Amino acid sequence: MLIDTHCHLDAAEFDADREQVAAQAQAAGVRGIVIPAIGRANFEAVRDLAHATPGGAYALGIHPLYVERAWNDDLTVLRSAVEQAMGDPRFVAIGEIGLDFFVKEIASGAARDKQERYYAAQLDLALEFKLPVLLHVRRSQDIILKYLRQHKGITGIAHAFNGSEQQAHGFTELGFALGIGGAMTFERALQIRRHAKDMELEHLVLETDSPDIPPAWLHEPDRRNTPGQVAGVARALAELRGVSETVVASGTAATALRVLPRLAHVLG
């Protein structure tokens, strides 16, 4: 069973053919698509889209790249949305949340402080409602881990993971899975490929981050990534590990269901 654990299917890039893209993913064997929010502006959109998409599920959270423009009451709005969503079987996690220290404008000073405050508050929310988290960890792995160790009991996915071996083990020791997607398909991505090859499948999940992070086989002029590409990611991962695609699909699906247990209600 193939599961895309991170797909921004609500993005404007899919406005012209969203239903077709979802149908193509289903035809490619993708049984589940997790659609994370990025801020209060798309809370309703990801919920409605998850319900309209076969195998669709959603997460609610405030993305670190959108924290700077967040309103003062956004965390209150998020908590209310999460509380209301707890009765919805398609709601599976808090996300996309985390820290981004790659973008210089928000990597220091008051902007960084606000990022960390929002991240910690959303971890508090995950603990309160006993939910996993979908983590954005761009150049912020050690600080992300510091907060996780202060919020014991939270698990989830370190999305698009590209940290060191020590950092990878830091996440897996806390019960997190590492998200493996299109970046792994590039031969120059040595560190990501090493994790993909050496980590046990019980620590890995598949993802696309559609429409972003396209795999190596998508070329210009249209490099838009789609959830159906998770089938190719699974194939590339199987080749890298020297196992069958079935082994990769079943192993990563089991991991996805472990770290996102509410997803089982969606997949039946």
Structural key phrases:
42% helix, single chain, eight-stranded parallel sheet, alpha/beta
Measure the end-to-end span: 12 Å
SSE pattern: EHEHEHEHEHEHEHEHHH
Radius of gyration: 17 Å
Q: pLDDT average, as an integer?
A: 97
**Count the strands?**
8
Describe this structure in words.
With 268 residues, this protein is of the alpha/beta class. It has helices spanning 18-27, 43-52, 74-85, 109-129, 141-150, 165-173, 190-198, 230-241, 245-259, 263-267, and strands at 2-4, 30-36, 56-60, 91-100, 133-138, 156-159, 177-180, 204-206. Helix 3 runs parallel beside helix 4 (109-129) and helix 8 crosses helix 9 (245-259).
Summarize the structure.
The chain is α/β, with parallel strands linked by helices. The protein has helices at 18-27, 43-52, 74-85, 109-129, 141-150, 165-173, 190-198, 230-241, 245-259, 263-267, and strands at residues 2-4, 30-36, 56-60, 91-100, 133-138, 156-159, 177-180, 204-206. α8 (230-241) crosses α9 (245-259).
